User: Fold this.
Amino acid sequence: MVMCFCRKWVIVRTSWTNNNPGRRFWGCPDPFIGWYDEPMCAHSKVIIPGLLRTINKLRIAVDDIKDQASKHEKEVVKIKEQATMLKYYLVYSWIFFVVVLNIVVMQINGNENLVSIDQLWICSVVHT
Ligand SMILES: [Zn+2]
Assistant:
């Protein structure tokens, strides 16, 4: 570690200015002491800011996609819950139907002259 003239430890930082994109320099609480890296070539000064802009756009796109995925996951959970409830409703409605049918059949069997169970079954199939 290197100590600054102000008696604090020197830190290596990275410049993100257009003239020195990605070039490291020495700093401490004072913002700039000297360059850590060699000067950048003209081509790097053009290429690196373009790459940084592309990375930033992609990060924003990834964040948007993550937000959408999160919303879709919540919708999927909600739809699964509704499907489970509908399955319960279906099962309970069939149980209710069978119980009511049994009650009707028991009442009819009490009076054999009205309708036989075969006739009741045919009636229920025709009406459904
Ligand atoms: Zn200093």
